[in-house]
Design goal:
Order of helices and strands: EEEEEEEEEE
Radius of gyration: 19 Å
Shape: globular
Number of helices: 0
Helix content: under 10%
Largest sheet: 10 strands, antiparallel
Number of strands: 10
Structural class: mainly beta
Strand content: over 45%
Distance between the termini: 31 Å
Length: 193
């Protein structure tokens, strides 16, 4: 059987320069999910703020810290932090490495049908009702072959530790992308994961 529900999501993002080298930024989302009886309504949020740099030399970096949480049949939440380092060895080649740590301590009494939001792409879905420490890492390389053609390779690893449990999950994600820009706002993309 399927469950009827209505979901509303509100998002914000903003940034401003602190000087010629650094900028401050924030990203946030808030979701309200109204379920039909007998299921209870739920809310979830994730807010981060951070500092980033413009490209200096061959590098660019950003770091963030924040909090995430949810409320359904009890509360869940925890800290979020991470960062990204980008290296530009040539004008056409970019290499990026990122890490995201998400902690979720849950006192929810019912299993959740919603998943935690992670900033690093991963094949794993972690319910809001699970107490976990998730470390997600990613390495990506993109190369501009010509003004129309770009190729991207991505490798990601996610480690999910279940708090107060011996369970430990590991997830890997690899993908290859070939992109052809037909014109300014339209592209043809082939991706294999």
């Amino acid at each position: 059987s399927s469950e009827d529900y209505t979901a509303k999501t509100f998002r914000e993002n903003g940034a401003f320069w602190l000087g010629p080298l650094f900028y401050a930024y924030s990203d946030g989302s808030f979701t309200i999910r109204a379920n039909t009886a007998p299921n209870s309504d739920s809310t979830a949020f994730r807010v981060i703020g951070g500092i980033g740099t413009r490209q200096f030399g061959l590098f660019r970096a950003s770091f963030y810290f924040g909090h995430q949480g949810s409320q359904q049949s009890g509360a869940a939440g925890g800290d979020v932090y991470g960062g990204k380092l980008t290296y530009y060895p040539t004008a056409d080649w970019t290499i990026s490495a990122s890490v995201d740590e998400t902690i979720n301590i849950s006192s929810q009494t019912l299993p959740s049908t919603q998943a935690l939001t992670l900033l690093v792409e991963t094949p794993a879905q972690i319910p809001l009702s699970s107490s976990t420490r998730i470390t997600a890492t990613s390495l990506q390389s993109s190369y501009t072959i010509s003004p129309q053609w770009t190729t991207v390779g991505h490798l990601g690893y996610t480690r999910i530790e279940y708090i107060d449990s011996p369970r430990l999950d590991n997830a890997w994600l690899a993908s290859a992308v070939l992109k052809y820009d037909i014109w300014r706002d339209m592209a043809l993309i082939w991706e294999y994961q």
